[in-house]
What we know:
The chain is an alpha+beta fold. Helices cover 15% and strands 35% of the residues.
Amino acid sequence: MSDRSRRLRGAVGALVVACVLAAAVAPAGVAAGLAGAPDAQPANPSAASPPSATAAADAVGPGLRSANGTVEVVVRFAADAGPRASADDDGTAASTEDLRTAAASAQDAFERFAERKPGVAVERRFWLANAMLVTVDTESVAVERLLDVRGVERVHENFRVEPAAAAGDDGAARDVRHALAGPGRAPAAAESTSANATYGVGTVRAPEVWEAYGTRGEGATVAVLDTGVDPDHPDLTLSGWAAFDATGTLVSEGVENASDADGHGTHVAGTVAGGNASGTAIGVAPGANLYGVKVLDDTGAGTFAQVVAGMEYATEDPAVDVLQMSLGVNEEVDEFIEPVQNAGDAGKLVVASAGNSGGGTSSSPGNVYESFAVGAVDESRDVAAFSGGETLNTSTDWDNETLTADWPAEYVVPDASAPGVNVSSAEPGGGYVNESGTSMAAPHVSGVAALVLASTSRNVSDEELYATLRDTANHPDNATESDARYGTGIVDAYAAVSSTEPFYDVASLDSPPAVERNGTLDARATVTNADPIRGENRTVALRLTDPANESDVRELTATNVSLEGNDSATVRLNGTVPSDFATGETTLEIASPDGNATATVRVADAVGTVNGTVTHAEANATLPAIDVVVDDGSEVVAETTTDENGTYAVDVPATNLTVTASNATYAPSTAAVTLNGSGDAASANLSVRLRNGTLAGVVNASDDLAPPANATVTVTNGTNATVVAVEAAENGSYAVDLRPGSYDVAAASPDFGSDARTDLTIDPNATADPGLALDPKAATLSGTVTNDSGDDPVADATVAAGSASTSTDAAGNYSLAVARGERTLTVSAAGYAESSTTFDLSANESREANVSLTPTAVFEVTSVSGPDEIERGTSGEFSVDVRNAGRAAGNVTVNSAVSPSGTVDPASRSLSDIAVGATRTVTTAVSIGGDASTGTHEITASTGDDARVEAFTVIDGDDGTSDGSGDGDGSGGGGGGGGGGGGGAGGGGGTSPADGEETTGPTNGSDDSTNEATDSTNETDLTNGTVEPTNATEPTNATDSSPNGTETPAGDTDESIDDETVDGAEADGADESTDGDGTAAGDAGDGGSDAPENGGVSDGSTPGFGPVAGIVALLSAVLFARSRSGEA
């Protein structure tokens, strides 16, 4: 194709593509237009028009109102579409799946809008905040126009990050960064003030919790949302890690990827759960699980999307209990309300710093009402000057009335305080550093929260944990109200843990089986304090459910139970059964606030007592642990068990009753009693017998085939008396009940042998299998073997089936014992074709199987004869005699082979229609190579029925040489060379014998008799293209023609080149000459392998035409290609 054609085709292709794209894009552009997109319409017609300028301005962040170019925005969706409603009314946590589902539903319309609208791209979806991070090209879409999409409530910045925190006044970008205050870092060793702990750890009284309650936060998990964590610090053990970029995208996960280039997060993590590798404890809860969640970059700053993504990650993990957030944005930021509230609804406590701008200020998310905001105090317990704190007015300080509807009119920030001045903790690289700020105070509170959670087995809600931390804080001024400097005071771990209620477990409930309406119900249970904390006056109650109404549960009585940590006590409770309860079976419960135990009790109008003793019927002994069941004819009304003396007593409704005693070992025994009224008593003494045992199993066959279908199992006792005889089923199975004892068991079948077991023990209510297996009796095959052509018996035929075999007698009869199953009967005899028949034989079966054999030819090799010696390089002829020794005429193939070397021609000869007794002879020539080893060789002649081996000796020749040169005595010279192309010339024979003198071998110098018989080699001398008749025994040298017409004298056997006689054969065929038409002169029809006769030698000096022809062909091809190229 020409360049022009290619360009034209490319242009056409481009035009087609452009047309296709134009056709596809044009309608899509219309559909994606804001005004025409149905999903972009507001939810109701009244909202269809664009919002007013004032409404749009209020719903768009100040930094976005005049934005140009491509901007990154956070789109927030209406609160009533958010997930808060999924929290249960009883305060139990909502699942993160509920939050995801609600957010997805609210965001669906915007997602579809963005897919169709050029210039709008969704970068990240959030569910903890009902929000999306969106990139907007303001040249295509104004930010205000996003408010037209259904469900969108407002649009704000992604809080672009700056290195320094500053108050965000109107129009300025808000900054998210960690809450670090003071002149900077002061590297130092971990400083101990008491109990080998930093002053901060000591101030919150963590060591007292460790010692008094034996807990260091084990089982609780705190996620530190910060700049990262150094995983290699000796005081820190990370259990989880994740890192997010500025768009909220997860960029790394797994502890092996943890890092902290800033150091702030490592310091915070050390205060939460650091160890004491330096000899000084730096962490409040060193046993807690620690997660590192990187939401601030290496300068200590981040974005709203980053922080919310980290909060989502921690909230979604069910193991996380506390979100530790030493970060913030100055002033009140409504955007943080929703993620904090939803984290709380999911059961997480959000602990955040109050800010570092001093009194009268605070930062978000710490100042969100649901957060636990933390202020900072110094070692003297005085509030740090930088510590934030203020009283907030919900209606004037916050804009989102929907999310703040449940807040009080006013509240104080911080909630409480903790050490935050010159706090010593970990820094990356394994060292320690002093830091100041509310960032340092908040992790003390998170550590205390972990101690509280670890101290109890109860499920402590985030609301309870929040209240415990606030209510147990210690105010230095003993103030009873929260203030804007301390909050409720300095957190106190020991007081918080001590005030936490432990888990009370209830077990081992003991109650009467029956009670009367309006009567006393007396019950007791074991109550255990499962935690190390002392339980003070915890309520344990006795409750009863109306038998006719499951929802009517009455508390009959209750008591307060105080228990030391890990202690237990038996609590006895009694109350009156309501008179308005129905009669019948119901549930009794003794319950603590944490656990309960239940039992079944029967409510009756009148209750009496049944008692008695249970004895062994055969041994006259009382029996313990026998189950006693009392029923009234329609249902069981009571159950009990005999004591160690075999006695029982049970309260039951007063009526006509049946008492039954039994257990797994003893068979049931019953007695009838009657109780006439309340307080009546009746005795029922019962005697029980051992339950029968069972003898059961399958009578199998020892050969693993089908079991006997008619086996009998006989059981005898110690006196050899038959106890029982049972017929096994067709599949061999059987079962019989026997009294406990020792028995002998035997099985037998008419077609099988027998099997037995002695002293087999039968236990009560148990099954014994003796594992019986019978040997099947052999089947019998018998019959007569005859000749199928005349029905004459065939004597001495071999009859075999499986491993059994025999021979027929003179009358052709046989009898064979064969194992049962599928068996193949094979019959063979000399002169007959083998016969095979398959039978499926049963045990002990007798079957007649007569067999007719077909006569066949059998060929014996009766002799192999030939020369005793063969010279190397020559051949010898062998005769093979084959006789039909069979019973029918037939065809045979005689195969011959020689070893260890040599060839046979022909190697195979077929003979047909050989009569019975006839002998035929075949001949074959054995050729031995000139380089064959001397000594014994063997020729093997074989038919399909017989083979015979004849040995001969290979010897050196006395009248020939092995190199192919004639020596004048008439022996053959060397073989001819194989030439490429037309074939090389062969080596010549010796001089011809005198007239009248016999030759001792073939005249062909190769001494190959086969070749001599089939090839007229060298009968024509093609010299220089001239054909002349030659003497068959003295040909001219057929290979010494020169292609340029120069002749070499014929028959010259002594010509040499460079004083050396040329070998009679050329390995590469280079001495091949050609005639005028290119036919190889020496070619005898076998590819140029024939050797010249009569001692001729190849001169080796004149090349053949092979290379020349090759060169000519190559030049022709080149010229042809050029001519074709010229035509093109």
